[in-house]
Write a structure and sequence with these properties.
Number of helices: 9
Structural class: mainly alpha
CATH architecture of the largest domain: Orthogonal Bundle
CATH class of the largest domain: Mainly Alpha
Helix content: 55-70%
Oligomer: single chain
Radius of gyration: 19 Å
Number of strands: 0
Strand content: under 5%
Shape: elongated
CATH superfamily of the largest domain: Tetracycline Repressor, domain 2
CATH topology of the largest domain: Tetracycline Repressor, domain 2
Length: 183
């Protein structure tokens, strides 16, 4: 049967290209990304990559957007399990998960995040990524505390990615709690 005019032969191709990009980023890092490598990973012709994304930069921007969407969905679900009294422990558990079982995607997120040091579009996406956590925290604590905790958790998570072994949830929670007031 002939296909209808102007309908795609492979409607999932763009999504497969994007998934291949994220997978390649997880397995090999930013330096491995090229149209050819992504096409090979996705099992599509190289021309399909340039048809859907006009540059590797555009492909990486879309990969960053997709990671932010995943993060937002995950954090929205996480935010529903948090209360103000449990926020430090739950945030520590979240950071611990992201540096252990979620390490691969966390590393990719930071690699893309750091592109924002030189590129305004990636900087805007990096700001959006950090605001996702802030918005969830702000549902449970005052705005200033939410900003403080989001910034602290981000730095703690990045620092923890360099540690072997990774810090445990108790150590992370201790770092996230406010210091005891001198008494």
């Amino acid at each position: 049967m002939a296909r209808t005019k102007n309908t795609p032969n492979d409607p999932d191709r763009r999504a497969r290209i994007l998934a291949a990009t994220v997978g390649l980023l997880q397995d090999e890092g930013l330096s491995a990304i090229s149209a050819r490598a992504v096409a090979t990973r996705a099992g599509v012709p190289v021309g399909s990559v340039s048809y859907h994304f006009d540059s590797v930069r555009a492909l990486l921007l879309e990969a960053a957007r997709s990671i932010i969407e995943l993060r937002e969905a995950s954090l929205t679900s996480w935010g529903q399990t948090v209360t103000a009294p449990t926020i430090h422990e739950r945030l520590a558990e979240l950071v611990h998960t992201q540096i252990t079982t979620g390490r691969a995607i966390t590393v990719v997120a930071y690699e893309l995040y750091l592109l924002g040091l030189r590129d305004g579009d990636f900087r805007a996406l990096g700001n959006e990524a950090t605001n996702v956590l802030y918005r969830q925290l702000a549902c449970h604590v005052p705005e200033a505390d939410a900003h403080h905790l989001a910034t602290l958790a981000d730095g703690l998570q990045l620092h923890s990615l360099f540690r072997t072994p990774a810090p445990g949830p108790e150590e992370l929670a201790a770092a996230l709690r406010p210091p005891a007031s001198p008494g």
